[in-house]
Amino acid sequence: xxxxxxxxxxxxxxxxxxxxxxxxxxxxxxxxxxxxxxxxxxxxxxxxxxxxxxxxxxxxxxxxxxxxxxxxxxxxxxxxxxxxxxxxxxxxxxxxxxxxxxxxxxxxxxxxxxxxxxxxxxxxxxxxxxxxxxxxxxxxxxxxxxxxxxxxxxxxxxxxxxxxxxxxxxxxxxxxxxxxxxxxxxxxxxxxxxxxxxxxxxxxxxxxxxxxxxxxxxxxxxxxxxxxxxxxxxxxxxxxxxxxxxxxxxxxxxxxxxxxxxxxxxxxxxxxxxxxxxxxxxxxxxxxxxxxxxxxxxxxxxxxxxxxxxxxxxx
Amino acid sequence: xxxxxxxxxxxxxxxxxxxxxxxxxxxxxxxxxxxxxxxxxxxxxxxxxxxxxxxxxxxxxxxxxxxxxxxxxxxxxxxxxxxxxxxxxxxxxxxxxxxxxxxxxxxxxxxxxxxxxxxxxxxxxxxxxxxxxxxxxxxxxxxxxxxxxxxxxxxxxxxxxxxxxxxxxxxxxxxxxxxxxxxxxxxxxxxxxxxxxxxxxxxxxxxxxxxxxxxxxxxxxxxxxxxxxxxxxxxxxxxxxxxxxxxxxxxxxxxxxxxxxxxxxxxxxxxxxxxxxxxxxxxxxxxxxxxxxxxxxxxxxxxxx
Lengths: 315, 305
Ligand SMILES: Nc1ncnc2c1ncn2[C@@H]1O[C@H](COP(=O)(O)OP(=O)(O)OP(=O)(O)O)[C@@H](O)[C@H]1O
Ligand SMILES: [Mg+2]
Prior knowledge:
The structure holds 2 protein chains of 2 kinds.
Chain A: H1 2-15, H2 19-41, H3 49-65, H4 71-90, H5 100-108, H6 112-124, H7 127-132, H8 135-139, H9 145-179, E1 187-192, E2 195-200, H10 201-230, H11 233-256, H12 273-276, H13 287-311
Helix pairs in contact in A: 1-9, 2-9, 3-4, 5-9, 5-10, 6-9, 6-10, 6-11, 9-10, 9-13, 10-11, 10-13
Chain B: E1 4-15, E2 18-29, E3 33-37, H1 44-51, E4 59-64, E5 67-68, H2 73-76, E6 80-83, H3 95-106, H4 111-120, H5 136-148, E7 154-158, H6 166-183, E8 186-191, H7 194-200, E9 203-208, E10 211-217, E11 229-236, H8 238-247, E12 251-254, E13 259-263, H9 268-277, E14 281-288, H10 292-300
Parallel strand pairs in B: 3-8, 3-9, 6-7, 7-8
Antiparallel strand pairs in B: 1-2, 1-4, 4-5, 9-10, 11-13, 11-14, 12-13
Helix pairs in contact in B: 4-5
The complex binds adenosine-5'-triphosphate and magnesium ion.
Magnesium ion (MG) binds at residues 44-45, 158 of chain B.
């Protein structure tokens, strides 16, 4: 199929340059860094975690009885106590940092790095062809323009997935070799709306990855649109990075001032994990609401990209 | 018989209120090399961009192989190869990978065909090297190889000899001539190198300020026998020759050291025989070719933007 061949072309152009390999090297470096930090900072996990959990509950209980502890902190402490109690009741060990799966959990927390890389790739994949002057040769081929553009976006998504899976597998291998599976927990316990839930660690990883991937789909679409619109990757990268990493802060600040429109901004909706293993950052938002908002934005981003690309004269 | 591969009809481009190209009409025939000649800014590149779908047309249409570029771009461009302005390729890829890339846009990769076009343009040695290391001439040749990949019926080349040395220009000229001879492909080539066009093209279309001002046959093959032409004659005694020819009703003009005669291939032998019989010594007979350059300059005087 034509689009598949076009994606193959995009991948060839990506893999024959250094950029992606440098990104992979940086991902390896970040895993190693996490490993070093884990080895240096955290003490090895206790032999008897139940005893530790029991101690923690007792200490937290003391804290709860103290005066002058703010309410928000108390809520958190209460949640922590509930989780500990749940673990004791159901015999589920915590996900220690120095176990294979605990390490994976730590590493995938650093996947913001991949989002950064994907923003860079997505913001350049169209504009660089203009800069290289190769867009002329590409668009005078008997291929519909939308197919060219679609294959570029799909190639971004494909490589985002590749990097994400690479990170996960690398973390798993390193974790397994360095820490092994002794004492590792296969169940993940979390609190949502005051109720304790339990799930397989792998489900937790999968959902985390999926939620992260959806976030990447969105920010990549945004970067893609800006770069197609202005043929300028620097602008697209700067704008996307700003939104990706300052977006949630901006969202909370606006929410603090009681701005109602906040929940309609796309970047406060990209973190779907907040609904699954926690509670939404802004009251009244639901996962269904966020998915609809994301869909609408996605259609707008793609629509703008395809319309401008289709119409534009190539000089 | 001439078969039109491409028909350009009422083709126009307007940007803002500037008319870059105004209602062009011409055909490109099978097996011919058609030159597109005009000064800088005449609208050559703009016309070619519209022909290959890089620019939207403001008016008119281009039909290639019976398909409208406007309505059915994919079909129309299926058998068109080309280079517009500089042959910019992916510098970080090898010449070979560049060809793979562009071939894969149209269909499955066919290594045999790539080998063929590489051989045709003589790039066998460097094809595995990165394009970054190529000279301008090599890039031009890679560009032509790229254009030839899908057996085009029409090749559109915008100043393919731009920046090449005389040897490079001659090589490209030879490729193109060989190509039209061997494959019957039509070539549409733009340039402002007039002498180059004269050597390369069968026919030229002259464009100025977005309008076609003239079409010239450069190598008329049919009814050439009876076509009027100018012949320069050096002979002794010149005055006697003038008298004899005038008597026969031949248009003749006496220059300082030669005569200019208006005649045709068909009549020339008779004139020659007559003069010799009358005792005039003939030293040289030469066909006077009004250079395309002279005509072009005469026509485009002040036509530059
Ligand atoms: N995008 C554009 N917007 C406005 N004017 C343009 C645009 N592109 C080209 N022009 C103008 O259109 C005219 C024709 O340009 P074009 O490039 O077609 O000329 P050309 O015949 O190819 O010239 P050259 O021999 O220098 O390559 C020029 O006057 C140019 O300034
Ligand atoms: Mg030009």
